[in-house]
Write a structure and sequence with these properties.
homodimer; 226 residues; five-stranded parallel sheet; 8 helices; 23% strand; DNA-binding
Chain lengths: 226, 226
DNA sequence: CCGACGTGGTCAGGTCGCGTGCAGGTTCGA
DNA sequence: TCGAACCTGCACGCGACCTGACCACGTCGG
């Protein structure tokens, strides 16, 4: 089957067998794969980075734990997959709004399956890399752009890889060799000077959006974001 | 008059001629239009997005395929019409419960015609192909058209699928491969250049309605809506 | 049965921008 | 002060993309 994208591996943490079943069936019917956890403990065991899940569906109201705690525990374990929270109606005005801002999403129970499916697809699509925010600068891999405040600048693929590599560890110095390896992953042999050209272009684009951070040179070592 | 107004186009996939006849007659008597498929193959051929059906009635127990597989195949083709599954009694406790919770529905054979009619109406009502609005652009799946402000342009089915895929996440870059997979869900091998032609046609049509958003190219990656 | 029409798909040629390298100037560290 | 490291501006080639046309096929009305 070749339809709209690749299969997504979805991790579900839900105590209610009925809801679990509904979700599992619907997701499988749409060509996705499912990993199940019945409670917080199983979630931590089964839905970590090693599980290979790409999207998480977590019930906020678990018997043994809050879905947000589960999320936090998974995140602590290096699991960065986007989360779709299932929440009861009365919790909506609580702190749920916060989820949405974080790139994660939520649906209110009782929910329509179709809604869950749509959101799972959306999360997967934009999740591969979630927008990376670094001191007022946000990188959007799905848009190939960098934004500060409201302004946004689009980057070429190579520019983006380079900036992403340098921004990966804010404050740390990215060595020239490391930057080259990141921006040219195929191991192409590029002129030492080429990277300077790209750094320059990045500086111009960062300036065009009044970036709060500067791309500075550490002479003899590499580059860093300040 | 009982039925609430507009005619609904119902797609039926059912192998039993008797059941087919009963459904067809009842639906037509209530002012609906019917498109028939005798098996899974015909369903995929006749009940896709291009058929214009608004509600699907799928027999779960087809000779050549499971109704759920048929549903999956149709969904992959961009057919998002709600489904009413016809299922045998013994399957109820199977996984059918899952359908009812979602946007879709089911009835158990043998069923009362009136029940089917009620559910068809309910399904249609709650899933009227609402136009999808994206930054001033609205896509009308039921009319295969795109509108901005007051102006409207009609699209061919392939054009619509392509635009819908790119518009799914405004601002995000839709990769060429993904766009191809969306516009040609059957996995047809199309010339790499073909998609360019369609993008061009879409651009022309978007321009003809003074679209507020532009279909721009992200060189080396894909397309995006800005 | 035939021709008009809409749709899907292909092709050849032209355009354009990304990736790249170079030359010359400038800054920094010793 | 001197050399190396870095910055700046620019030019160029190739491949990705755009453009406008063409053709094959199915549908429908006459």
């Amino acid at each position: 089957m070749v339809h709209d994208g690749e299969m997504t591996v979805v991790g579900i943490c839900e105590d209610d067998p009925g809801v679990r079943r509904v979700l599992t069936d619907a997701l499988k019917m749409h060509g996705h794969d499912v990993v199940i956890a019945r409670n917080g403990r199983e979630a931590v065991d089964n839905l970590g980075v090693r599980s290979g899940v790409e999207v998480l569906i977590l019930d906020v109201g678990l018997p043994d734990a809050d879905g947000r705690d589960v999320c936090q525990a998974l995140r602590a374990g290096g699991q960065h997959a986007p989360v779709l929270f299932l929440t009861a109606l009365d919790a909506v005005h609580d702190r749920v709004a916060g989820f949405h801002a974080g790139g994660d999403d939520y649906v209110v129970k009782p929910f329509a399956i179709s809604e869950v499916l749509v959101r799972v697809d959306a999360l997967r699509r934009r999740s591969r890399p979630e927008p990376v925010s670094i001191s007022g600068l946000s990188l959007h891999p799905d848009r190939l752009s960098v934004a500060a405040d409201g302004r946004e600048a689009t980057l070429t693929p190579t520019e983006f890889r380079l900036l992403a590599a340098i921004a990966a560890e804010p404050g740390a110095v990215t060595r020239r060799r490391a930057a080259v390896a990141a921006a040219w992953p195929d191991g192409a042999i590029v002129n030492e000077n080429t990277i300077d050209s790209y750094v320059r272009r990045l500086r111009v684009k960062l300036a065009s959006i009044d970036s709060p951070v500067e791309l500075t040179t550490v002479r003899g070592v590499g580059f860093t974001l300040r």
